[in-house]
Amino acid sequence: MTPASPSARARWFIRRLSARVFPSARFFSHSGSRAGSAAVDSDTTHSAAAPFPAAESVGTQSGPSTATLFDRTSTPTRTRHTARAATVLFACTALVCAAPAQARKKTQHPSVNVSTVLPAAVMAGLQRAHVPLSSVSVVVEKVGDRTPLLALNAGKPMMPASTMKLVTTYAGLSMLGPDYRWRTTAYTDGEVDANGVLHGNLYIQGTGDPKLVPEELIDLVQKIRKAGINGVDGALVLDKRFFDPSTRDLPAFDDDTEAPYNVGPDPLLYAFKSLSFTLTPSPDGTVSIDVLPALAQLQIDNHLRATGGPCRGELSALNPVVTPEAGGLVMASFDGNYPLRCGDRTINVATLDHSAFFAGGFLALWKQTGGTFNGTTREGAVPVGARLVATHQGPMLSDIVHDINKFSNNTMARNLFLTIGAVESKPPATPAKSARAIEAFMQSSALPTEYLTLENGSGLSRNEQVTALTLADVLQSANASPVAQVFVDSLPTVGVDGTMRNRLTREPVNGNAHIKTGTLRDVRAIAGYVASADGVSYVVVSLINDPRAEAARAAHDSLIEWVYQGPQAALTESLAEPVAEPRGKPRKNPNRRGTH
């Protein structure tokens, strides 16, 4: 049963797609304990007080001036944000406020590979995984002090997997503002008759809204209907010029072409271009199939049979065969036995190209509201002189960043990455424009870019690289910025939510750290903040690039636990001596892929 309210249904749909639970945001007090929970207030400005207070704070910063989308179309909303004066005054009084110029001064890090002795539990985890120290980079710093307490291979360029999302989301929040909103607009070049039939084309122009799900798109459909259009006797034309054509419908990252994490960016991204099928077996031998979102051209051929017996192994019935049919229809075929004991199962399948998926979703909602359509669909530009019919504003960027980081959503991150390039330069967006814009922001923020390589901003790449030291600098800068609370709240809380909800659930660090994870084949990564038991907050980053990285998750968990116990005190005690490089050992499953 779906929730009643539109916002709840939107979260429910994304939860089904990601198989994760949407939590409330949490924040920490400077004492290191979890202080409470607070959802992002989308109607107010955001506090500049750092969630992890340090010995100094920085002044406010505002985004660059607004650029226009196309000559006659206003850009999606981007509101300059400043810190509340009272909050800043309190922070400066309590924390000994330092001058912004001093805070922005580029930190001169000490030579890395000096304090390189890892905690005993971390070393043991690496040894069990047969991961050599040369494949590991680690940085641990106090929040507000960029001098590492622990650093191993900290300046070595590494594949970060999804911890690269920290760079993209911090840059996006700082450059666009937490209140930035994407716009999806409808235009027409025809006339509406007395019966409400539009004799002409209906144009839908997208700007890359990463969260245009059914509960959002229906708002645009209803606004078009309220404008007096009941039917369309013309074409549905999709204007996708906000992103360069070279950025759309790209080859999959790996051979799992139907995996939602492989979906690329698009100006009219709809429901992550993925169908969510829920299978429900019944004692009468039938299996019902529910699908979200509805597509006008989609038909389901259901030959599933509910059977007895145990639920074990891979079920071929979970894999529909999706094929195009005559007349533009798309058939999803299911066949096979489905054990009753398996209960409800949901499978997510990325299918079709972006334009076909959006058009199918739009027309399904259009017809559900009683609208008629007698034309064709195609891509094209909104002509000069076309009449604006309706505008839908998507969620605020603060909400988008929450979903990107909590649940490691690659597609949303890639849309944000390209949006930065389109807004800071001019449409159409390209990866090169976006990379240059983010690098310029980092340089202006005294953040190193020497070993930073950006390809799509999500970390789903073998070409993206960054050093652990750079990620630590990003975390330090973000925590001292006007977007600190929004940024930190977006990271998974250890043992509570997001990609960390099932890790360290019975350890004292549970609920006391915000950690972004990263997972690819041969890559494991963590980066975030730990509010330790000693009352001090720390930045922790660790990247592992090795064929046996998958087996080293326990080492990362041990590192987080060690930081929670208070690394400054622990460093004065006896730590493990470096162990001999372990002999190579093949991975148990060399074909397994990660997505976060």
Strand residue content: 15-25%
Order of strands in the sheet with most strands: 4-3-22-21-20
- The CATH topology annotation of the largest domain reads as Beta-lactamase
Give me the Rg, rounded: 25 Å
Beta-strand segment tally: 22
The CATH superfamily name of the largest domain is DD-peptidase/beta-lactamase superfamily
The proportion of residues forming helix, as a percent range, comes to 25-40%
Shape: globular
User: How many H/I helices?
Assistant: 14
Given helix and strand content, the structural type is alpha+beta
- Going by CATH, the architecture of the largest domain would be 3-Layer(aba) Sandwich
Let me know the average pLDDT. 83
Instruction: Outline the biggest β-sheet.
Output: 5 strands, antiparallel
What CATH first level of the largest domain would be assigned?
Answer: Alpha Beta
How many angstroms does the end-to-end distance come to?
A: 29 Å
Organism: Paraburkholderia solisilvae
Protein name: Serine-type D-Ala-D-Ala carboxypeptidase
Pfam family, one: Peptidase_S13
Keywords: Hydrolase
Q: What would you say this structure looks like, in words?
A:
Keywords: Hydrolase. Residues 585-596 have a biased composition (Basic residues). This is Serine-type D-Ala-D-Ala carboxypeptidase. This protein folds into two domains: 116-178 and 397-570, Beta-lactamase (3-Layer(aba) Sandwich), CATH 3.40.710.10; 180-395, 3-Layer(bba) Sandwich (D-tyrosyl-trna(Tyr) Deacylase, Chain: A). The chain is globular and about 80 Å long. Helix 5 packs antiparallel against helix 8 (397-407). The protein contains 14 helices and 22 strands. A hairpin with a 5-residue loop joins strand 21 (523-531) and strand 22. It starts with 5 loop residues before the first helix and ends in a 26-residue tail after the last helix. The protein has helices at residues 6-18, 85-95, 100-104, 120-129, 165-176, 214-226, 354-368, 397-407, 410-424, 431-444, 468-479, 484-490, 553-565, 567-570; strands at 26-28, 34-37, 136-142, 150-152, 181-188, 191-192, 197-199, 202-205, 231-232, 236-239, 274-281, 287-292, 298-307, 321-324, 330-339, 345-350, 372-373, 377-379, 387-396, 513-520, 523-531, 537-545. The longest helix has 15 residues, at 354-368. It has a five-stranded antiparallel sheet, with helices on both faces. Strands 18-10-8-5-19 form a five-stranded mixed sheet. The chain is an alpha+beta fold.
